[in-house]
Design goal:
The protein is of the alpha/beta class and 506 residues long. The protein has 2 domains: 283 residues, Glycogen Phosphorylase B (Rossmann fold, 3-Layer(aba) Sandwich), CATH 3.40.50; 195 residues, 3-Layer(aba) Sandwich (Rossmann fold). Helices cover 37% and strands 20% of the residues. The chain has 18 helices and 18 strands. Strands 3-4-5-2-1-6-7-11-12 form a 9-stranded mixed β-sheet, sandwiched between helices. Strands 15-14-13-16-17-18 form a 6-stranded parallel β-sheet, sandwiched between helices. Helix 10 packs across helix 13 and helix 11 packs parallel to helix 12. The relative contact order is 0.10. Bound molecules: adenosine-5'-diphosphate and alpha-D-glucopyranose (GLC). The site of adenosine-5'-diphosphate has 18 residues, from helix 1, strand 13, strand 14 and helix 13.
Length: 506
Amino acid sequence: MKILVATSEAVPFAKTGGLADVTGALPLVLSEKGHDVRLVLPEYTMTKKWLDSNPQFAVQRINGIDVPIKGIPIKCIVQELKHKNITVYLIKNDDYFLRDELYSTKSGDYEDNAERFIFFSRAVLKMLRLKDWSPDVIHLNDWQTSPIPLFLKTVYKDDPFYSSIATILTVHNLGYQGVFNSSELELFSGVNPAEIFTMDRIEFYGKINLLKSGIVYADIVNTVSPKYAQEIQIPECGYGLDGVLRQRSHELYGIINGIDYDTWNPSTDREILHHYNLECLENKRLNKLNLMNYFQLETGTKSPKIELDEKIPLIGLVGRLAAQKGLDILAEVFESLLSMDIRLILLGSGEEKYHRLLQKIARKYRDKISVNFGYNEELAHRIYASSDMFLMPSHYEPCGLGQLISLRYGTVPIVRETGGLADTIEEFDPLSGIGNGFTFTEYSGKALLQAIKRACYIYQHKTDWQRCISNGMNQDYSWSNSAIEYVKLYRRAVASKVRSSGIQKL
Ligand code: ADP
Ligand code: GLC
């Protein structure tokens, strides 16, 4: 199939979270399966930096295009490069994209996000004409590319070049919808506002909702785990869009994410000191000793440089410091947790209030906890490889990649049973030997603490612990299976497009 993956971020060009991991890895696997897959994203400051430090990837300037915004043509340049068999298009408009962050909501600098991504969405479609390449399907991701099917079904609906392109929208996180004032309607140049600003289109409590435009106009919608696909159809998790999602429930699917097994591989990972696999876990212990020494955490022995007290587990956490990630309940039990014989290493960046809270606790328990702020790819790899346990007490989690990476690194996940965490992690039962982690349901510090205590108890029983680790390491969360599911969805999207437009294509 001819597949265009349109995204606001993709590894290695730009990343704020798991979305970039997904859009960076899925195209590679689809291409290995013989499909013509191409990727398009904006060129940000972060992208430029990556290109500058990787000159072997020669960027070719294709041409300039004009994109109408509020009726005015705005210029951008389409650039192209080959990355591991994939053709990547970069949309370059420095006014919109040459910024320090991708779409931060922290400062007022990103108040033009509606304009930036309505522009990007339309530029993607114009770029296809420039390349004279009409894909079978465009795979959209989150609110930033959600205007694409709206344009296809309004301004381009009678244009034969575009009329047979099917669309599928993947919702990675319903908590981010791209909601803007209704005055931004004029950004949709050439579209009749009265046609789209209705309750069954993109109107959302008097505002416009870009994610809703994807949900309403795309041929097929999916989310990143079967459980989350169910959850978002109920008011508690639907963030106001559950009704619209219920209306599309017959075309709403859930496909669990994979992880890139080349990037995340403890036996080849270039970021870690000692490589290991299931047959030789001794090196994992050496990574742990090394990282604990590096952060000057108390190892519980007289010769900390070379010895570790085997009874003390190291717990890792890597993630965005946002309410979604369960930091409130973690904060509730920090003191009790740190009174236990454990060590903690945290890496993340996000909301100021969590930074302050973590700084305070780090000062108090210097020997037991290391708190690291910022985005640090290398340290993330070292934490996954060195920790015994990995914490994801998420309030909600569409899929979650941290627990999948942890399974691959023999690091036992402790998670709240929600979304993709519930679909991938099963409580370890020492009697049957089944299970790959520790889980809790109630969103409370108490339930989290109990799960950590259960994990610490099993940790002291090395045969059981080893069993739990091998259950996880033996699982396959590579992209291979999920990519097959995506191809099925693409075909469904094309079929549904053919049915709705009567076009002869298949
Ligand atoms: P989300 O997309 O909601 O942030 P996921 O679990 O799906 O959560 O994916 C997060 C990805 O980002 C993982 O690859 C994780 O290792 C990475 N990550 C998150 N925070 C950091 C950080 N501060 N430094 C390095 N990598 C990070
Ligand atoms: C989102 C979700 C996360 C998911 C990721 C990739 O950021 O919060 O759960 O794994 O997207 O799909």
